[in-house]
Amino acid sequence: MPSASGSTDAVPPSVPGRLDRLDRELSRRAAIGWPHPPWLARPIGALSLTANYGILWYVVSALPWIFGEPRPLAKALYVAVPVTAVETLGFLIKHYVARPRPPIADPRQPRQIPLPFSNSFPSSHASMAVVGSFTVGTLYPAALPALIALTMVLCFSRVYLGVHYLGDVLGGLAFGLVVGALWILLVPAPL
C-alpha cells in the first residue's frame, strides 16, 4: 500500500539480487542478442564441446608422449591430476549451488550446443582452462600466449553459446586461479 508520500513499502532488491539480474541480462544479450553466424558459432561450439569433462586437457596432457619428451608420464600427470581435481571439486560445488543453466532457467533461450548434465556455477570449462594453462604453461612457457588465447575463447564460448552465465565463467576463472596457483606452488614441475 502506498504511504502518504506516494512511495510503496516494497523492499528494494538486495545487492546479490541486482547482480544476479545484471548477470542474467548480460549473458542473455551475448547468447541471444549478438549475431551467431554459422562460420563463427560452429567452430566455437566444436571447440567448446571438446573441452567437456576435460577431454581437451587430457589430450594436451598426452602431447609429451606424442613429441617424445623426456618424462612424459610425469608431465601428463602434472596436467591431468589438477584438471581432474578442479573438475571433480567443481561438480561438488555445482551440486551444492544448484544454479540451473540458462536454457533450463529460461526455456525460450535457444540451445546452441548440447547442454552438459551438470548445473551451471562455476564453469568447469573456465576453471579447467585456467588450471590447464597454469600447468602446461609451467612446463612449456613459450606456449603461454596460445594457452591464454585458448582460455579466453573457451570462456567466451560458454556465455556466447548460452550454456553459462557470465558469473559462472567468472566464478570458474577464480576457482581455477586458486587451484592452479596452489598446484604450481606446491607440486614441483617435472622439467
Please outline what is shown here.
Helices cover 66% and strands 0% of the residues. It has helices at residues 15-33, 38-50, 55-61, 63-66, 72-97, 102-105, 124-139, 144-160, 166-186.
Question: How is this structure best described in words?
Answer:
66% of the residues lie in helices and 0% in strands. It is an all-alpha fold. The mean pLDDT is 91. The chain is globular.
H/E series: HHHHHHHHH
Number of DSSP-assigned strands:
0
Largest sheet: none
- Spell out the CATH superfamily: Phosphatidic acid phosphatase type 2/haloperoxidase
Q: Structural class, judged by helices and strands?
A: mainly alpha
- Beta-strand content estimate: under 5%
**Overall shape:** globular
**CATH architecture group name:** Up-down Bundle
CATH third-tier fold name: Vanadium-containing Chloroperoxidase, domain 1
Total DSSP helices: 9
State the main characteristics.
9 helices, Vanadium-containing Chloroperoxidase, domain 1, mainly alpha, 191 residues, single chain
Please outline the helices and strands.
Blueprint: H1 15-33, H2 38-50, H3 55-61, H4 63-66, H5 72-97, H6 102-105, H7 124-139, H8 144-160, H9 166-186
